[in-house]
Structure formats: structure tokens, C-alpha cells
Amino acid sequence: MPRDNRLSRSLHALIHLDRHVKRATSETMAKMLGTNAVVVRRMMSGLRDKGYVVSEKGHGGGWELRVALTEISLLDVYQAIGAPALFSIGPAAEPSPCLVEHAVDAQLDQTLSEAEALLLKRFSQITVADISDDYLSKMAKLGLPSNTFPKCSE
């Protein structure tokens, strides 16, 4: 099962919009993220609907950050992209008459629900600015100026 990378791509795009470009087209962001512009527009539309970014069509248009990264949590971005499933494991999809499977499914449901609650709580405590600060720290350790545009794709 392929991983859902919309959360990491969205965070990546938000940090670039904050640190490197005031406005970026879907095509520019698609090259940076190694995907296509349609995927970017779909991904960014949820962020736009929540008011974190705005978009303008036409010449000189593109996506622009509307809210400071300190005001956006990982939970906010996760919810903006549609709150995809966090785990690819879980109980059987089809109901079964087997009581062993009922016991297994009940325990898995409970455990995964508890894990999801902890993860979402942690998401709410981390801002996109925290991630951006970590990126800037990595740049400083490499001796690179913070305004350097990192090479993210070929």
C-alpha cells in the first residue's frame, strides 16, 4: 500500500511559501515536490479552504501564504487535507461470525483509537514554524545562509 504523502508535501509547500517565494504557481511547486500541477492544486485547495493560503489565477498568479506558520499546526494541515487514515493496519474489513476475530478486531480498534488520539494531540502541539525552525537549524549547521533556496528536486 503506497504511503499518503499529502501531509508532508503540504508542509513542504507551506515552508517554501514562507521562506523562499512570496508566490508560487502550481507548476513551480509541482517541480519542487516531484509531482504534477493537478496534484498540487488538489492538495493546496484544502489549505485555501481553511484560509491558510490564497490563490490567484492568470499571469503573475499562484499560491501565497495567508497565515503565519506559527499559527498553523500539523493538526490544522492534516485536517485541511481531509484527515486521511493514519494507519494502514486495522481490523478485518468484512464482518465475520468468528468470535476470535471479534476479539481481535475489538482490541485493534481500541488500541488504534488510543494511538490516533495521542498522535493527533501531538500534531496539535507542533506548528509548521517548528518544522521551519528545524530546517533553518540544519541549514546553519551546513553553513548555508537561511535565504538559500535548497535544492528539493532535480
From TrEMBL:
The UniProt record lists the keyword Iron: yes
Stored Gene3D superfamilies: Winged helix-like DNA-binding domain superfamily/Winged helix DNA-binding domain
Domain of life of the organism encoding this protein: Bacteria
Keyword field: 2Fe-2S, Iron, Iron-sulfur, Metal-binding, Repressor, Transcription, Transcription regulation
PROSITE patterns assigned: HTH_RRF2_2
Any one Pfam family match given in the protein's UniProt record, by short name: Rrf2
Keyword Iron attributed: yes
Signal peptide positions on this chain: none
Protein name, entry field: Rrf2 family transcriptional regulator
Lineage: Bacteria, Pseudomonadati, Pseudomonadota, Gammaproteobacteria, Enterobacterales
